[in-house]
Amino acid sequence: MSGVKTLQKGEILFREGDPSDAMYVIKKGRIAITKAKGESEIVLAELVPGEMLGEMAFFDNRPRSAGAKAAVDSEVIALPFKALHAQFKTFPEWLKAMVKTVNSHLRNANQRIKNLESTQTDSTNMFPPHMITRLTAIISLVGFKCGEQEEEGMVISYNTLRNYCIQIFQAPTNKLDKIMETYMGMGFMKVEDLGEGKKKVTVLNHKLLTDFTDWYNKYLFTEESKKITVEEKEIDVLRALVFYGQQQEPDNKGDVTVNLTDVQNNSMKDLGKVIDVSMPDGLVDKGLIQEKQSGEGGIVTTKFNLSELKTLLPYWDIVYTLKKVPGRG
Questions:
Q1: What's this model's pTM, rounded to 2 decimal places?
Q2: Which of 27, 79, 248, 299 qualifies as a FRET site for 187, CA 20 to 30 Å off?
């Protein structure tokens, strides 16, 4: 709807990932542009009267790449895309092409900046991506080569792990110890101190770590434009879909249908977080779940392959857990 929209301080104009249907001109006050970062958010910029926001999606109809909220009591003028498109059609073709090109260049520039920031962040992490695959591959390989399968899991020699780490893969042993500690916290391994410098290492889920290594290595070497990346903010959504999907009976293709309205109503009680019906939209765009369907009484559902999401969930859990381990790569 066009016209002036009044916002109280802190009131959300739109959220990151929301569908784009309008751009806005600030009439009064200040609008903060925000970006989710883990469980919190950062303010990228504050726009003042006369400035415009939300205009880039006019050309490609992509979801909001950032959020916007009132930094102080504010007023904005909403300019719906539907009305603007009618006017845009009257522009000369050369002008339309020029404006679209500028918009595309801005999108690409923003993505390059984002990729650069990601690369710089990796250098200050304990586990840059290829260090994750190297260390986890050591654990997997030693398990295959000389591990002994016991009831609890695959038991491997800690000394052999260290030797492979130092002599064959030339990786730092402090990182091996740290990744093992992280995997212990995630319930994938157990390390018992036997005294006199000896340790018993039990890999509780050797297959998972092996499969993760293969999957992550393939992901890292996939062309950037073809990668399907689950963002950290989408992990809770993925976990909720798996949780409620396991309560459904899969069809002959392994697909399940989940009522997103029920997820929204029950997720706080069941999972400790509210999973809004709009939150799976990013997974729809990535093709991980099917388009949402609306039914009687406003019920919203989606369908997906349960086995695929159950496989992906621990993989992305590992990736983002290891990214948070402090240190230098």
A1: 0.62
A2: 248
